[in-house]
Amino acid sequence: MENIDGYLMKYTNLVTGWQYRFFVLNNEAGLLEYFVNEQSRAQKPRGMLPLAGAVISPSDEDSHTFTVNAISGEQYKLRATDAKERQHWVSRLQICTQHHTEAMGKVRCCACIWAHIDSCMLMFARITHTSILFLHASMHIYYTLNILVTTMMSQAQGQHRDLIQSIEGLPAAPGLSPLDQDLLMLKATSMATMNCLNECLHILHLQQVARQRGSLGGPTIEWLEPKLPDILKNGSSSLGSFTTGEGALEGSRLELSSPESCSFSGQEDIDAEDEAEDCFTDKEEDLGAVEEERSVILHLLSQLKLGMDLTRVVLPTFILEKRSLLEMYADFMSHPDLFVAIADGSSPEDRMVRFVEYYLTSFHEGRKGAIAKKPYNPIIGETFHCSWKVPRRTDASKEPSQGSPDPATSQDPYQVRFVAEQVSHHPPVSGFYAECQERQMCVNTHVWTKSKFMGMSIGVSMIGEGCLYLLEHDEEYTFTLPCAYARSILTVPWVELGGKVNISCAKSGYSAIITFQTKPFYGGKLHKVTAEVKHNTTNAVVCRVQGEWNGVLEFSYTSGETRVVDVTKLPVSKKSVRPVEKQGPTESRRLWQHVTESLREKDIEKATEHKRLLEERQRTEERHRAETETPWRTRYFEREGEGWVYHKPLWKNSAFKS
């Protein structure tokens, strides 16, 4: 299915007659929308017709007219310019109608299931309410409430059995099966809920026994915690806060700052001589944890709602990558030779194409393996520093090669330096900056990562903007970032990118639109991307790109020339990072070193406790700042309007001003 749009004539009434209107077939929503004209498309539609259950009929009046009859009784009488166009619209509308009609039938077949769900939810609410009464009951009504709770549990178990039988006994229907992913999720959630209720009933009995002992003069006991897996003990506000008895972990004390030291007035001195080539080569290839801890994920999913903001939700430790988000941003610079080569472009057009090439090849190496795992959420004030050495080219105009890097000349290599800082906690905003002084170029970016729960996937919006400065050419390239999606979070999670990215250079008049396409429900390729580079003044497209952002990209020029870039064969430059012992206390690798070491040792419980201590410190310092009305002071980035800018960028350095 594909979205189509265009002008059709719409019959209104005897007085008005036929009018030209701009129609849009929205396949995803199953709607036929129309607007006054194409220019008003960004506004609210003038009208829309749901296609589920609709009937699309070519008219007998002539070869141009057809009707769309909605299930509600509303009708659109439309006319195309010719018979061919009518056939195109009718066939596309019929395909969309069939798809959404089948989906509607699936919903109707599941009506009995939802009735059971409502009944189950009501039963669970009643059990919860009665359990609270049970906790506060005096001895003389204990037995009455005990019988009531036991009876209600028996009823809930009956509801659960009815639910399972209803799913497994579904009538045969197109696109409907007891093995449907949503129905399997429903069965698992119901089972998990019943297990939790049984645990709660067990705890209530233990608590009552403890009270009986207390009434006989014996010592009383504290509330008994439910038997949840240790992996859930992560300090999450939604899952409850757990501690591990003595608190501190032996042999691995964290460097926790006092509340008074929660802001920093100076910058750390970074000595490039201390940096060494990175030996951190962990690949996230272990699928075992995801499979083994599926019940934990189901427990977490049961607390989430569609569209819910996940910013404040603490996720289980076993799904974490062994690096901070700030370091992940640095890994997008793993092809610094392509970054430096942008300034080698002989013309504004060439430089824009080079920037698009660098942009498209930057995402592949930013992922550590094919498994979708989540990097650490940076602590406010956390920083990350690194650099790359880029061999100088003997021929500055030479295109970057696919093989090994060009041999360096006798001159010293270029140096690309990178710094990132978490400048805000709520919302979570990161700023990062990279520069190559020898080439008089730098890039400044601020990103707010906003994640949402989408059922079987998680969507992350990269809200923010970046700007590349080529001081030698007096050019600025502004760009946005795509959205990221973690798919199949219950089986083998994987990442895909989606959305449109805009790149523009006001001085040269060149711009680019990059479209990261998500895989459609039926068919289609994974990780597909397309791009167009055009000259705004003439509206002429000078280069087109198509392929996969983690595979092969084909560049096609107006001259007829084509060029292929295989992202997987590009040489990767390892960054240089100072050893942990020489890093400051708020630098990423030193800050998270105990969590990372525990994950490498596959000691999830220990990693969880270290992570909890870091998050608790952040909350303590945040409360202290709120109580003392002390604003947070960043180290390397300053607020400018809606964005964040590095405090000493090249474009503000008089030595580099043109």
Automatic annotation (TrEMBL):
Gene Ontology BP annotations: lipid transport
Recorded GO MF terms: sterol binding
Localization per record: Golgi apparatus, trans-Golgi network membrane; Late endosome membrane
InterPro entries: OSBP_sf, Oxysterol-bd, Oxysterol-bd_CS, PH-like_dom_sf, PH_domain
Domain of life: Eukaryota
Function: Plays a role in regulating ADIPOQ and FABP4 levels in differentiating adipocytes and is also involved in regulation of adipocyte triglyceride storage. Weakly binds 25-hydroxycholesterol. Interacts with OSBPL9 to function as lipid transfer proteins.
Residues in PH domain copies: 1-98
Gene for this chain: osbpl11
The keyword Ribosomal protein belongs to this UniProt entry's keyword annotation: no
Quaternary context: Heterodimer with OSBPL9.
Record protein name field: Oxysterol-binding protein
GO CC terms: cytosol; Golgi apparatus; late endosome membrane
Keyword set includes Transport: yes
Catalysed reactions, semicolon-separated: a 1,2-diacyl-sn-glycero-3-phospho-(1D-myo-inositol 4-phosphate)(out) + a 1,2-diacyl-sn-glycero-3-phospho-L-serine(in) = a 1,2-diacyl-sn-glycero-3-phospho-(1D-myo-inositol 4-phosphate)(in) + a 1,2-diacyl-sn-glycero-3-phospho-L-serine(out)
Stated family: Belongs to the OSBP family.
Main location: Golgi
Assigned keywords, A-Z: Acetylation, Endosome, Golgi apparatus, Lipid transport, Lipid-binding, Membrane, Phosphoprotein, Transport
